[in-house]
Design goal:
heterodimer, A: 108 residues, mainly beta, 4-stranded antiparallel sheet, 11 strands, globular, B: mainly beta
Chain lengths: 108, 120
């Protein structure tokens, strides 16, 4: 099983600032990585797939990078609606897909 | 627009079987993709339970494989989850989701989720 480790667990950021979230895989997942956003009481929403491709309707302030074992989700200028929990998911290891434990982005 | 909706009992007794159904609208399950179940214990992260391919092939998380069955009913355009011998550790919000194919197995459409509590 590929273990996904996200850091930090909580990130305190002021509105308008940049947020950088990390996701590390226990072994290479190539670029087979997705990012999701989850707000309280809601289902996760797909943000990024293929490590860097934005899903339909996702604002350009969200960007993903990385390959292999190290990945980053960057939110260039945090808006109020961006405060949420973010999860990464690897889908390289078919058919055992795993998620990270999440990073909570909170208002500083 | 693809929509998924989970349904089933919100309370299950320990040792019994949890049964949920996911109704899909806006897309025919038989046309393609994988269809998956993911759960989230209160205050915790996401765990993939299993997926079914549109052809009927099933794939389960090894940690749950002995207790999980996923099936599809194409006539009703829905798929189902059964989890047997439940304990309090199976208390969670259960989501159904469409899972992309062709090597990109991310989840692009999700149901709203349904809370299942295991308690006597």
């Amino acid at each position: 099983e590929i273990v996904m480790t996200q850091s930090p667990a909580t990130l305190s950021v002021s509105p308008g600032e940049r947020a950088t979230l990390s996701c590390r895989a226990s072994q290479s997942v190539s670029s087979n990585l997705a990012w999701y956003q989850q707000k309280p009481g809601q289902a996760p929403r797909l943000l990024i797939y293929g490590a860097s491709t934005r899903a339909t309707g996702i604002p350009a302030r969200f960007s993903g990078s990385g390959s292999g074992t190290e990945f980053t989700l960057t939110i260039s200028s945090l808006q109020s609606e961006d405060f949420a929990v973010y999860y990464c998911q690897q889908y390289n290891n078919w058919p055992l897909w795993t998620f990270g434990q999440g990073t909570k982005v909170e208002i500083k | 627009q693809v929509q998924l909706q989970e349904s089933g009992p919100g309370l299950v007794k320990p040792s019994e079987t949890l049964s949920l159904t996911c109704a899909v609208s806006g897309y025919s399950i038989s046309s393609g993709y994988y269809w998956g179940w993911i759960r989230q214990p209160p205050g915790k992260g996401l765990e993939w339970i299993g997926s079914i391919y549109h052809s009927g092939s099933t794939y389960y998380n090894p940690s749950l494989k002995s207790r999980v069955t996923i099936s599809v009913d194409t006539s009703k355009n829905q798929f189902s989850l059964k989890l047997s011998s439940v304990t309090a550790a199976d208390t969670a919000v259960y989501y159904c989701a469409r899972q992309w194919d062709y090597g990109d197995y991310y989840f692009d459409y999700w149901g709203q989720g349904t809370l299942v509590t295991v308690s006597s």
